[in-house]
Amino acid sequence: MTMEGSVLTEKNAGGLSRNVLKLIAITTIVIGHFFLYTFTTFRAFGLGVPWVGIVCMVCFVGPPIFFFFISEGFRYTGSKRKYALRLFIFSLITQVCHAVTVKDGLAFDLHGFFFSWNVVFVLFLGFIDLCILESKWHIALKISGVLATLVLSFLLQAEWFVTGQLIIISLHYLRKHNFIKFFVSMVLFYLTFVFAECGPETGFSATFWSKQYFYYLSFGIIGFVLVCFFYKGRNGKKSKIIQYAFYILYPLHLILIDLAVLIFGK
Q1: 10 found inside a domain
Q2: Is residue 76 part of a domain?
């Protein structure tokens, strides 16, 4: 989806390749979202508690991988401007699908379109944060710029609170320190759910633990372990089809979910 081809060499023969990680990310997200948004339509295919909830939460394996490849894409893309533009365009396309999928009855949620932004937009903001931080601006301007994007994310109630962007930044700057990178990322991942109910409309709210957190964190750990300890810099087969497939598949899977609900829903 958001993973550019890079100039990484194949000197590290071990570990998972980029393409395998991309496949894991998109597969887990599609499975989790399908069960989550078609729960009523298909009665979760007969899965009982807690299995249906666990299957829905499989989708939390994917975002850590997406966050990681934004940090990788920033380092290796040939044109940061084109990369950012692609992310922005696909965040808009995804937002249209997102505003329909998350609304009961497949009605277009106008308020949700403007004030409940999807994860691709978070990836775009995270990439912009890295551009700002690696620019030649004065440190005060860099801090102000990143704070501005975080405030924007908060006001627009984007997914992953503001921690998605902070995870991308931490993965970039801690890339040579796997254990520290893993620990910091998991702390930020946890804080995502602690402050999940915060927003300009709801105010400040913090829930430091619930039973669901165990499942959120368990699947998040899988994603972060894969990128922190099992990815060794291998590209996998390079292909424009593969590259753009992961831009397209995110909004496409939401469209297919909507069609399934429309056709089979009561």
Answers
A1: no
A2: yes
Residue 241 CB partners (closer than 8 Å, separation 6+): none
Report if residue 181 sits inside a domain. Answer: yes
CA-CA-CA-CA torsion for 84, 85, 88, 89, nearest 10 degrees? -150
Q: What are phi and psi of 32, to 5 degrees?
A: -60, -45
Q: Give CA separation, 154 vs 100, 124, 148, 167, 181, in Å.
A: 21, 14, 10, 15, 24
Going by C-beta distance under 8 Å and a sequence separation of 6 or more, which residues neighbour residue 96?
113, 251
> What pLDDT is stored for residue 4 in this prediction?
46
Domain count, the chain: 1
Those residues of the chain that have pLDDT short of 50 are 1-12
Residue 244 lies in a domain: yes
pTM of the complete model: 0.89
- Look up the domain containing 91 and give its range: 16-264
Residue 25 contacts by C-beta under 8 Å, 6 or more apart in sequence? 1, 61, 62, 63, 65, 66, 223
- Cα separation of 117 and 155, whole Å? 10
